[in-house]
Structures are given as C-alpha cells and as structure tokens.
Amino acid sequence: MANCSSSIQFILRIAIPVPLPRLFDYSLPEQHDPRSIRPGMRVSVPFGKRMKTGVVVQVADLDDSTTDPDKLKPIERILDSEPLLSARDLQLLHWAARYYHHPLGEVLATAFPVALRQGKAASVQEDCYYSLSEQGQRASPAQLQRSGRQQALLTLFQTGPYAIASTELSQHKAALKALLAKGLIQPSPRQETDRAWAGQADALQPNPQQRHAIDTVIAGLGQFSVSLLQGVTGSGKTEVYMQIIAETLSRGLQTLVLLPEITLTPQLEQRFRQRFSAPIVCFHSKLNDTQRLKTWLGMRQGHAAIMLGTRSALFTPLQKPGLIILDEEHDSSFKQQEGFRFSARDVAIARGKILNIPVLLGSATPSLESLYNVVRHRYRLLQLSSRAGDAADPLFQLLDIRNKPLRAGLSDALISTMHATLDQGRQVLLFLNRRGFAPVQICHACGWVSRCARCDANMVIHAGEHRLRCHHCGSEQGLPKVCPACKTGELQALGLGTERIELTLAELFPGKTIVRLDKDTTQRKGSLEAYLEQIHSGRADIILGTQMLAKGHHFPEVTLVAILDIDSGLFSVDFRAGEKLAQMIVQVAGRAGRADKRGKVVLQTRQPEHTLLTTLIDKGYQAFAEAALTERRQAGLPPYSHQALFRAHANNAQLPQEFLSALVDLIRTLNGGKTRVLGPVAAPMTRRAGQFRFQLLLQSPQRKDLHRLLDEAVPQISRLKLAAKVRWSLDVDPVDL
Ligand code: ADP
Ligand code: ZN
Ligand code: ZN
Q1: Which residue among 215, 239, 272, 383 has the greatest number of ligand 1 atoms within 8 angstroms of its CB, and so is best to mutate?
Q2: pTM summary value
Q3: What is the DSSP string of 116-182?
C-alpha cells in the first residue's frame, strides 16, 4: 500500500436509507485493509449535515468511482467486523430492490432491527437463563392455583426446554420473580439451551389428510418448494405446522413463522412452547429495540430455533434455515403499504427459493393469486377438507332483511335467534366492520353533514367521548350540540357503528354481558388480552366487533355468528372487493362452533340471490374462487395480468395530475410491450389529510414487459420537472387501487 497518507486507493459503494435510487461512493481511509471489508457490513458515513448508517455494497478501485475524487468523503467508521447479512440474504434484498423498483438503501434498512439501523453494536448483553430447581421439578403446578400466571410459567418450564432465556420470558416478568423467590426455578448456565432441539411426544395422531401434508412437506425439506395448506379454522393446520417443525428441529434447522397480526402471536407461542423443547423467539413491534435486536441476533447466531413474527420479521438472518411458514397467507397485512411496498408472501417465496428451503402457506381462504399458482403447478395444494377431531362445519343462513324492521341493524329474526342461543348458555358473535357510534352526523333541518375539512370523508361520531373523528387523517373535534350551519336544526346520527349497536344490545338483552372488540376498546396495552381472557372464561355472552374478529382468534363457546351488513361489500369499485368479502365471511364464520358444538352463521342481506353469496354458501369457498378466477381471466385482471401503480399527491389537485401526465408521456416513448397505461385518475378518496391524490395504473399480461418498462422509466422520473414538486411512489403488485 502507498506510503503517502493522503493517497486514497479504494472506495466503498454504500447503500444509504434515503429515498434516492442510487448508491453513494465514499473513500476508505488508509488505516483500513480493503480486504477486511465485505458487502453487508454496516458503516457510519457523513450524509448532508448528519451521520447515517449505510451498508457496504461494493469495495472498488478509486478509478471506478464516478464521483469527483476531491468531493469524495471518507467513511466515518466501520460498524461491523463481519457482514450481518449472508450473501444469500443480500442477494434476496438486491432482488427485492430491483423487483419493487425501490432504493436499495431503504430495502436493506428494512432487513435490520431498529437498533442496527441506528448504528448500534450488533451485540447484546449475554442473556440470563433459568431452569427448574430440584424443588421445581417435583412441584405440581396445581400448588400455585392462586396465581394463574405463575402456574402457567411453571408448566412452561416443566414441559418446555431445559433452560429458558430471559428474553423469551419478557411477558412473564412478575411470575418469574415469584417463582425465583419460591425457589422453584434458578439461574442456569446458557449451554443448557444448546441441548438438542426437539419436538415433544404429545403430538396428536394426524388424520390421513394431515399425514399426507406433513409427509409431503417433510419429504421436501432441504429443497425449495411452495405448498399451500388449505383448511378451514379448526381443520388442524397448526397441528400440521407443528409436526413439520418438529422434524426441522430434529435436523437442527430453524423455522421462521410469519403471522399477519401481533395479537395472534401469544396463543401460537404458547402452543409451540408446550410442544417444543427448543428456544422460541418472537419479533414484532410491541418489543422494545433491545429485545428485537436480541431475538434477531438469536436467529442469526443460531441460538434460537423458531421465530414467530409479523411482516417485519421476514428478513431475519437464519443461521440454519430450514422452513418458512406464512399463516393466513391471504391477509392484506402481509403487504407493506408505505415506503418499501413489498408483499411479505411473495418475498418469503423468493427467500425460500434463494435459501433452497420449503415455504408453507396456510389459509382457510387462500388468495386468488395463490390458487392460480396452484393451477399453474407452481404451488402444491394440500387440503384439509374437514375439521379435525369431530367438529361439524357451521350452518349458513342468508337472512333476507328487505322490508324488515331493523333495530340498530338487527332484524327481529336475528334477535330471536340470539335469544335462543343465549338461553342455551352459549355465546353470540356479531360482526360489523364499522367502529364508532355512527358514521356521520347530519342536520335534520338543513342537511349539513359532518365532513372532514381535510379529507373527502365524513367525521365519525364517537358518542362516549363526545367527539367527531376522521378515521382517515385523525382530525377530531367536540361533538356539536347545535348545527354549525343553520344553528337551529336538530342533529342526528346517521348509520351504525359498533358503539351504537352495543348500546342497543344492552337494551335488548338486559343482564347479558357484552364485549366490544374494536380499535377504540382495545387501544390500551393488554386490553385485548383481557377481553379475550374474559370471553374464553365464559364471562361474556355477546361479542361484538370489527375485522379484528375475523383474524385467527378462536372462540370455542360461540355457536351463533351474525354478519350484520354484507351488502356494502357487494358493490365496491375495487375488483378485489368480492374476494375480500368472501374471505371475511368464511373467516368470521370460522370463529363459530368448534369441538362438539355445531355453529350457525347468519348473514343479513338485501341481496339474498346475489351469486357471490349463493355460490359461497351452497358450494363453498373453492367454488367461489373458481368463479372469481374465471371473471378475472375474462376481464384480464390479476392474477391474469400484472399491475404497477404510480401514486402522486400534493396540496393542490393540479400538480399531481400534471406530473402523472408527464409520466404518461415519458412512458409512451418507451417500449412497454403490451402494457396498458390507465389514467391518470383521481384516487378513490381524492383528498386525504389535505393532500390531493391521483394515480396511474400500468397493467400488462406479461410481467416481463411491465418490469422492462419500469426499469427504463423509473430512473428517468427524477428528471421530470414536476417530480420534485409532488410526492410520488410506485407500488408493484398493488393490492388496493
Ligand atoms: P387450525 O390451525 O386449522 O385452526 P388446529 O391445528 O388449531 O387447527 O386444530 C384445531 C383443533 O383440533 C385443536 O384443538 C387441535 O388440537 C385439534 N386437532 C388437530 N389435529 C387433530 C388430530 N389429528 N386429532 C385430534 N385433534 C386434532
Ligand atoms: Zn342545520
Ligand atoms: Zn380527515
């Protein structure tokens, strides 16, 4: 190396998390050996007036830099002694940046937990470990009957792995302290957790379809494949997951399990802990930064065997990758809707391919995309057609409410069915996807309505808090007592929300306990868990809620489910509305009647002859999906075509339209094959939070054509005059248009 201290020979090409589609060159100060620096290592670099954490993409000769050598700044510091991401994970992230046409720096940042994005060291204080004391091994959990939490924790130790790390016990802090004080558990050396991972013997005897699913996936371990496990709630999908995971554990391999919602992790975690003798970690937004770093590193270093997480866990490095499971694969929460807009399902499959491991998707209501991939033999369909054990399928009833009087949205027929169910001591579940008291306030005299000043939307009445609130921008104000327009007219609440129905239910069913589950009632930390516990222990008669109820939670004592309003979903402009409605109906229905109690599902509608409803109810989800796929094919819509959506917004309506029109002109100069350019058009809710929103849709029968076009167009957008005056984004494979 040259002796002259001012001579610089090497540069580092760095990906920095900024919304610019390029890499940045920095010089490598003399004292660093360029051979010690590898792609995937984090560095701290000066950027503008601040320091940023970037990732090395390439080490190159100074001659290769396109930056003026006098302007090259040196990196500030190298943060890692080895890359935190493996070559294959970097390959995946490069692919994702290209596929979604998103800046690599932001894509790479997504792969790291917050602490690492902030440049913190990739190490954590060694965890404390605990194991049963001799006294604890002999103790019976029944002794602890006065504390359910301590009892549960003791059971966990007695059935789980020998030693458990404090990170895994973050939900059990108080109980841990109590058991330590009682001498039932004790600190323990960490090596004990490295004992062989294993599933436990209390696995159930699989039925033939479960057996087939388990054997098929296990036979494919060690190579890439995608299986779609389709089965209604209660059909034994989780049991299938667990038996496959047990096999990966016994081979010393790790499993990544992705779920759409954090609220679903605790119940699965508990089942896993009872079944597996291996370290299980969770990764989601309710953990603090240090906890997330710990669990991330646990998987990377291979101490942890199983990670349960939401979308953000997708990129966690795996020391010994064995299997990726994505449960409720149809759920739109797997799509990130801002910044780096990616589909966790699609990227999980790309990851499985690069790692050469199987990917298992599960759902009662697979997305049409996935079912189409089965038709094209890209995915293997594994079906569980009946409920495990002896549980019967629920009975559907379309309840025609045309011309029927309704009380807070409930027909008389429904009310009497509810009475009958409650009289048998069973629980009733009511679903309405609208929270608040009523969706709008109106003046009976002059017609004034509670519009949001910043959105093309109404302010929703929240009567309990005496507020009007916009669910789109968060604006709120006190509930007017006199009409703001005419000052004299009588103000009325128009329409129904869960809060209003709750009040009516209290009048109709005096003495019954009603639990309302929606965003408003479950905001406080721990409140959802408390309500779920109340429901499970039987201290609830009527459960009322929004889409929260459609997701995963099991309510075994519910034998009547009613969906109050399905008609609005039948006439939406969104071509996916029918699919979403069908999935919602089946998912909500899945909450009812498990084990020996046959459930009933009532759908109130003014469209009892609508083909979507009759097909779904008479012939099932599969038949619905086939019909829906035929319609999509005839209309040339996804999955039979591929879409990309440009969105643009600004604080006036003109700029986004002009920008998108200029983009259309640009696109017309390029070769898009058969790609159609649709728009620009106003977004469904044109004004939102004071921003005027427009969009431009590209649609092509060939994915390749579409991506070739984007490859050419995207780098040129920044040269458009208006690009700097609007906020724009690109959504590849958008799910809501
Ligand atoms: P899903 O994940 O599809 O909702 P689960 O795996 O949770 O279904 O199974 C539903 C219920 O049926 C659980 O109580 C489970 O223990 C039970 N179960 C699953 N498989 C079997 C089996 N092969 N034999 C007996 N019971 C089973
Ligand atoms: Zn008025
Ligand atoms: Zn608003």
Answers
A1: 239
A2: 0.90
A3: HHTT--S--PPPPEEEE-HHHHH--GGGGTT-HHHHHHHHHHHHS-SEEEGGGGGGGHHHHHHHHHT
